[in-house]
Amino acid sequence: VEASIPEPQREAWKRSQTSAFKSSDEFEKEVVRHVETSLARSMFNCDEKAAYSATSLAFRDHLILDWNKTQQRQTYRDSKRVYYLSLEFLMGRALDNAMLNVGLKDTAKAGLADLGFRIEDIIGQEHDAALGNGGLGRLAACFLDSLASLDFPAWGYGLRYRYGIFKQEIIDGYQVEVPDYWLDFNPWEFPRHDVTVDVQFFGSVKKVPNEQGKSVAVWEGGEIVVAVAYDVPIPGYDTPTTNNLRLWSSKASGGEFDFQKFNSGDYESSVAEQQRAETISNVLYPNDNLERGKELRLKQQYFWVAASLYDIVRRFKKSKRAWREFPEQVAIQLNDTHPTLAIVELQRILIDIEGLDWDLAWEIVTGTFGYTNHTVLPEALEKWPVGLVQHLLPRHLQIIYDINLFFLQSVEKQFPDDRDILTRVSIIEESQPKMVRMAHLAIVGSHKVNGVAELHSDLIKTTIFKDFVEIYGPDRFTNVTNGITPRRWLHQANPRLSELIASKLGSHEFLKDLSQLNKLELLVQDKEFKKEWAEIKFANKVRLAKYIKETTGVNVNPSALFDVQVKRIHEYKRQQLNIFGVIHRYLTLKAMTPAERKKQLPRVSIFGGKAAPGYWMAKQIIHLINAVGSVVNNDEDIGDLLKVIFLEDYNVSKAEIICPASDISEHISTAGTEASGTSNMKFVLNGGLIIGTCDGANIEITREVGENNIFLFGNLAEDVEDLRHAHTYGSHTIDPDLAKVFEEIQKGTFGSVHDFSAMIAAVKDHGDYYLVSDDFHSYIETHTLVDEAYRNQEEWVVKSITAVARMGFFSSDRCIYEYADGIWNVEPLPRRD
Ligand code: AZC
C-alpha cells in the first residue's frame, strides 16, 4: 500500500500519519478540537448536545482509521465478501456501542468527567437511528455487529431515509404519529458525494443486433435518478475490523435544477422534478409484516438494488477476474423479498451489458444469492402488479418472464402430468390484475432459502413453499434460527450484569463466545452470587420505575412483578389477549375482600409498541390499553396491586432500559404466526423469564433453558387450522371468563364502548382468527403459575440464572457462522495489528 505513494512524498505522508486517541488526555484534546473547529463553537459555551456531537466525531474519526485499514486489507487480500441487502437497519444509538466495541468507554468517561460531563447524559443526547420497523430491521443490525466482531468481510446495503419510523405520541390514549427528523445532525455518516450511481426508471426496450449479429436488448429513455452513497462505519467488538454500511440517498440528476426549464422561466417545475427524485429515499414505509403495494415503495426497492449491485459489480471488476468466479467472490443475502429485484438486475447486467449468454449468467446469479424468509403471514408476502413493473422497469419485466418461462419448462418436464403445479409455482400469478410473486422469484433465483427458527423453517417447507421443495428437493431449504448481539443486549444494556458475569467467568470473553455462559450454572447455589444477581435486577427495575414516573407520571412499586410486552402492535402478536387478561385480573381483584387482596402479589403490566398508521385495529388495541390504565391506576381499591403502563414511542434505546428490568415478558403470538421473535431472547439473556406460546424461537428457547424455566401455554401450531375451521363452520363458544371481560368493556367501565366493539366482535362474531378465546383459559392459568413461582424468590433467582446460563445458542455470532458455512461459503479475515 505504501509503495503507491511516490517516493519523494512518502516520508511526508508517513510523518504526518494520524493516529487514534488512546488516553483520556488525547480524547479530551480531540473533543475540544471538534467543539471549536468542526462545530465552530466556543469551548466556554459547550452544552451537552455539543459535547455529544464532539465526542461522537472523536469516535467517528477513531472508527474511520480502522475502517480504512480494514477496507484496504480486504481489497488487498481479495477475499470473498458478503453483502447483506436490507431495506431496514434498526441501529439505535451508535456512541455507546462504538465506545464499548473499541474498548474506550472508561477512557471517554474519565475524559468527559474532566470536561465537566457525565457520560450517561452525553450518551442520552443521541437520537436513535430508526431506519426500520421491528424484528427484521433489528436482526439486520445485530448481524452487522456480529459480522464485524467476527472479522467477516461484509457490507450492508440499505436506504438512507430522511424520515425513519415515525415518533409515537399518545394523546388522550390514542396513538398520534409525528415525523422523525433524525438527520438534523448525524455524526455517524460519511457522505460520499463522489460515489454516485445513475439509476434508470421507465423508458422502453429495443432489440438491436450487436457486432456478432446477435440481437440484444437496449433499455433507453425514461428518467435518471442519482444515488449518492452515505457510509456508516460498523465497529466490531474487540477487533480492529470495521465494516461498512452503505446507505443510498436519492438526488435529481443534472445537478440541482433543470437549467433549461429554469432559464425559460419555469422555475417551479424545475424544483418539482428535483423534489420528485428526492422523495424516493424520503420515508421508511411504517408497516411491519404488511405490504401495501405502493408504487413509490417499488421505486425505492429498485433504486436501492440497482445502486448496490452497480457498486458490487464495480468492486468485483477491479479484481479482473472472470465472470464465472463472481459467486466465489460475492455472496448476496436478501433480507426478505424486498431486494428480490437484485436477482433480475444482476441477470440484466450480465446479459445486456456484459454480453454473457443466458445460462452462464443465470448460473452466476443463482450461485450468488441467498434468500431469508421472515414470515408466513399472507398479508406480508410481496406481490407487484405486472402492469406497474412493466411501466417502471420494462426490461426487468421481460427478464422476469424469461426466468419464469425457463423455470416452468423445467417443472413441466419434471411433472408432466401435473398442470396445477405450474399455476401454483409460477412467478406470475394469473389473477386480475396479474401479479409478480416476489417470493417465488426469490426462491428460483437463489441457491439457498432459509427460515428464521426451526418451526418457521418447517412451516415454510410444508405450507407456502411446499411445491418448491418437491421441485428443488429439501436441500435448497434450510434453517438459521435468529440470534441477538450480546454486546448491545447484555454488555451495553445491562453493564452491571455483564460485569458480574465477567467477574465470575474471569473475563469478558463470553461476549464473543456466549456458550461460556453455561459455566454460571455451577454458581446457582452460591448465596452471594444469587444475592448480587437479584440486586442487579432490582436496580434495573428501579431505573425503569423512575423512567415510568418521568414519562407517564404513574408511581410503580419496583418490588412488584414487572410483566412486559413490548413489540409492534399486531393482532397476531396478541396484545389484545394480554389486555383482556389484565382486565380479568382487575375484575378478580375487585371481587376480593380487602383481607384477600392483601395476600395478592403486586404487578405492573407494561406495554409498548407502535401500530402501523393505517392499521386501525392495532390502534384500537393501544387505545384500550391506555383506557384500562387510566381506570386501574386510579382505583384506590387496587393501589399497588395492579398498574397498567403504556410506554410511548418504544424504540431500540428504550428497549435497552426495559429488557434488563423485566421479571416476565410476553411472547404470546398465535402458534404458527411469529416466525421467530428476537426480543424473547433479549429478555431471557437479561435474567427475565418468559410466558409464551409454542411459537417461533420460543420453542428452541424452551429446548435450551428447560421446561421448568419458561411458562408455556396455549394451542399448538398443528391445531390452529382445525380450530379456525371449527369457529367458522361449527359452534363457537367464548371462554366464560373472557365473556365477563367483554361484558365489563361493554358496560363502559373503560369508556368508549363503541371504539372497542370491533376488538370484541373479532373474537365473538368474526371467527376469532387469532384464537384469543381458545387460548384465554390456559393463558390465565399460566399467569397464576407465574405469580406462585414469583412468590418463591429464592427459586425464581435460580430459574433466572439457569436460563441465562443456557442462552449461549442465541448469540447472533452463532447465526453468522451458520450463514457463513451453510449459505455464503465465506471465511473471516482476522486482523492482528
Ligand atoms: C419478522 C418476524 O415477524 C419476526 O418473528 C422475526 O423475529 C423477525 O422478522 C426477524 O427474523 N418479520 C418481519 O418483520 N417481516 C416482514 C416482512 O415485515
Describe this structure in words.
Helices cover 49% and strands 15% of the residues. It has 833 residues and is of the alpha/beta class. Strands 7-10-11-4-1-12-13-17-18 form a nine-stranded mixed β-sheet, sandwiched between helices. Strand 23, helix 28 and strand 24 form a beta-alpha-beta unit. Helix 2 packs across helix 5 and helix 23 packs parallel to helix 25. The chain binds N-(acetylcarbamoyl)-beta-D-glucopyranosylamine.
Q: Key features?
A:
single chain; 833 residues; alpha/beta; Rossmann fold; 3 domains; nine-stranded mixed β-sheet; six-stranded parallel β-sheet; 24 strands; binds N-(acetylcarbamoyl)-beta-D-glucopyranosylamine
In short:
With 833 residues, the protein is an alpha/beta fold. It is built from 34 helices and 24 strands. The strands form six sheets. Strands 7-10-11-4-1-12-13-17-18 form a nine-stranded mixed sheet, sandwiched between helices. It has a six-stranded parallel sheet with strand order 21-20-19-22-23-24, sandwiched between helices.
